[in-house]
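hey team, just a heads up i'm posting the complex here instead of the shared drive bc the drive is being weird again. everything in one block, sequence lines first with there labels, then the predicted structure for the whole assembly after. its two chains so it's a bit long, scroll down
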Amino acid sequence: MSDNTLSSGLRRIPRRSEGIYATAWRSLMRNPLGKVGLGILGMFIFTSLGAPLIAPYDPIEIFAGDELLPPSFNYLLGTDELGRDLLSRILYGGRAAFAVGLLAVFLAFVVGALSGLIAGYVGGAVDAVVMRFWDMIMAFPPILLAVGVVAVLGPGSFQSAIALAIVNFPRFSRLARGGVLSEREKEYVMAARSIGASAARILLRHILPNVLATLLVQFALALVWAVLLEATLSFLGLGTQPPNPSWGSMLRSSRSYLRIAPWYALFPGATISLLLLGLNLLVDAVRDALDPTRARRLA
Amino acid sequence: MLAFTARRLLQLIPLLFVSSILVFLLIHMAPGDPALLLLGVDAPDEDLEAIRIKWGLDQPLPVQYARWAGRLLRGDLGTSYVSRFPVLALIKLRIPATIELAALSFLISSILGFSTGVLAALKEHSWIDFVVTSFNTLILGTPSFWLGLLLILFFALYLDWLPPSGRSVGLLEDPGKAWKYILLPALSLGLSQGAVLSRFVKSSLLETLTQDYIRTARAKGLRERVVVVRHALKNAMIPVMTVMGINLARLLGGTVVVETVFAWPGLGQLTIDAVASRDYGVVQATLLLTVVIVLLVNWLVDVAYAIVDPRIRL
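-- predicted structure starts here --
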């Protein structure tokens, strides 16, 4: 046998089968826009976590006499109306955005997915009541629902996380329920039932891993929404409260100084847009990676 | 068709009922005594007690709900805790501004979204498609409140073409004067929703253009314009209508933010002011009103869908 035949034979040996997530990760890494999104997200995570080391100043430290200064060597992005460094406030503001966003989406994931799994598995009246309840929640425009919840709980970061979680419960619940409906009649579920596995074990140990991919995509989508809604609530004065920095509240304050200090609005706004762009690119890439037929349909 | 419309309308009733319960319960979870909020902390105890009895605040929750719902059905939306005005009067003052803004934004988003979506689909993989897709991606990543601030910066402050905020007269009263004030807020909302619609129109039209009946139409020798306009567009628009309906419902939420940016005196601004001042009477009424409008819009979308696609009436 010649070398060429041997090497071509070796090339035809199939890869060892790999899991869905490994395949999705490789697919994501082959997507240039996905890598851009991942890079942007990585940069924001790095700067948010490293804010105490990277930020040149304390974000709430006031420098009297340095109010509304344009970008300079001392203040790379300028200062606000109280003389606080904008770069430091933007870096620390990322922490509020991620903290609120991740808490909200994690809560929504746990509560929403659990309720959907149970409703879908049990069926009947439980399913009907749970789904109709979520339908009611979804009848409210998300921002108005969030505003309504904050009206009750009061303004603040934690309260806005609760509000954002409530807005996202129905989506996770419906996705989980849909997944359960398509999995519960499958043979592996029947086999588990027949050997006496409890409903909880079947749901968490057998069904949940098979619907997790869809829920993870929704997790990423919900995170995009949560970051945007947190900034919106802060812009409306209902989210993170002063003097703690938040991009939305910085934009809120900048309105009064647009004519004399346009950078005050431009930098926080550009920051929010850049993060949303990165998240949107990443979400699209994750969706394509976990559902290759979608990528082929859109190509 | 009439039976379908009536059936869908009847299905709204339980939805409205449960929504009203949700809004009622939500506001009742708020801290603070409504009697204190209404009369102030210095009010004598006997006055506070009298208000509580008059408004049924000493009754169990189901009784309070029944009385509140009964007043709603008679058109009594309660009283503002802050201004002491009837909430209905406050809403009547503000709602025309919101309707104007939502209507113009919807028009802008529909025209922009539809035209750019069709263009991007027909010129797929060309520079036109690239420009439209990039523009949509950029707009989708820009929150409406920041887009509003950018529009103010450029058109109002830098070019000085348009006023930065406020509302002069109603659009129908004096369009010549009103358009300058409403254009920037409407663009802030309309551009965002237009980008969403544009993406959807493009993907819906592309999917329709791959159908067998389109291939047949082309094989028959029909001109491309006829194929697209008479065959493809009509069918591609059916799912697009759902998105347009969702857009209209979303606009109502979006006005809350844009009205704050532009100091537009609408329902959204009223809601935010009420939340900030803990005026729960107003918050309750505006939340419920918005949900009712959203449900009615969804019903109208269902009806329009059924008119265009008779299969769904079955």
